[in-house]
Write a structure and sequence with these properties.
elongated; about 325 residues; single chain; 6-stranded mixed sheet; alpha+beta; about 25% helix; 5-stranded mixed sheet; 7 helices
């Protein structure tokens, strides 16, 4: 609403909460009120309001420190009514970004994309923007700089659950860009959505009473020595497959309006699965920042006809 802004960041420690409580806040010089509206222990959200339209600067005056912060402009109008997809990315090969984006535009009707760039150092944000600019069918896109630490580093791949940056990015995506979108899909660059012929995840989410669709995932692997492209990931583990946390698609202005988005769903909402909808997690579409994914090579693998059919278009795109 006019005169209201949101500050998003890691959880507030006691000293910072005390600092804010003692500070005088203004929006464009007009005294403002503050209230914490965090829905998660992994991110803080502060609502700051004053009787001023479209504020441009937040002022913080404290007995020991005073400064102004520029306010990022709302982009809700640009994404209103779009079928949007967003993710956090760092140093992913530009060909991977292109194939991922084009695939979802062509198969799911995605027509807007937001990439939060986590301090990529092999190219700049302009390179990512150029990739998206060359994707036919996008009505809107942004590359948003997010040069912050992901969260405290644990001792193993299962001990990095803080994910402060990821939770903060989700809140920014919702509040600044996407809460007026027709639908929102959360997929990482190594994840490829699949759905039954002639329908999309957005349509399935809109038809669901919860306005939400849970997307189960399965690892898919390339042949040894195959090019590291999405389209070569057509092998599955023989026998029982390893399970993984799901991803999702939702209708922002539906029954989940105002609720915080999380990596694998919405707190308190049971999974909303439908037959035929899910995603393939491409094992070697990765910079191996988390762990060495090539460990899969000792597994027994077999062709997956569904993955072959779903991924066929990405190989065509890669050759174009």
């Amino acid at each position: 609403m006019p005169g209201t802004i949101y500050a998003v960041g890691p959880p507030l420690k006691r000293i910072f909460r005390r600092f804010l409580n003692r500070a005088q806040l203004t929006l464009d010089g007009v005294p403002a009120t503050m209230r914490e509206i965090s829905q998660s222990r992994r991110a803080s959200m502060i609502e700051i309001s004053a009787p001023v339209n479209n504020p441009r600067a937040l002022g913080i005056a404290h007995p020991h420190l005073s400064f102004n912060i520029s306010i990022s402009s709302s982009q809700l109008h640009r994404y209103a009514g779009t079928r949007s997809m967003f993710t956090l990315t760092r140093n992913n090969t530009l060909d991977w970004v292109r194939d991922w984006a084009r695939f979802h535009v062509e198969t799911q009707g995605v027509d807007s994309i937001i990439l939060f760039d986590n301090a990529s150092d092999i190219y700049n944000a302009d390179a990512l923007a150029e990739v998206l600019d060359n994707i036919n069918g996008l009505r809107a896109f942004d590359v948003v700089s997010a040069p912050f630490q992901y969260g405290p580093v644990g001792l193993g791949r299962e001990l990095t659950s803080a994910r402060y940056l990821q939770f903060g990015v989700f809140e920014i995506a919702r509040l600044r860009f996407l809460q007026d979108a027709a639908g929102v899909l959360n997929m990482d660059i190594d994840e490829m959505t699949h759905s039954p012929d002639s329908t999309t995840v957005f349509e399935a989410a809109a038809d669901n009473d919860a306005g939400f669709l849970t997307l189960p995932g399965r690892w898919r692997y390339p042949e040894p020595g195959a090019p590291m492209l999405h389209g070569t990931h057509t092998l599955r583990q023989s026998g029982e497959e390893e399970s993984m946390y799901p991803k999702w698609c939702l209708i922002p202005k539906g029954p989940q309006l105002g609720k915080s988005w999380r990596t694998h769903g919405i707190k308190g909402l049971p999974d909303q699965t439908q037959d035929g909808f899910g995603f393939f997690h491409c094992r070697m579409i990765s910079e191996n920042w988390h762990y060495d994914r090539s460990e899969y090579t000792e597994m027994a693998l077999e062709p997956d006809p569904l993955a072959q059919a779903v991924m066929a278009s990405t190989l065509k795109d890669a050759a174009a």
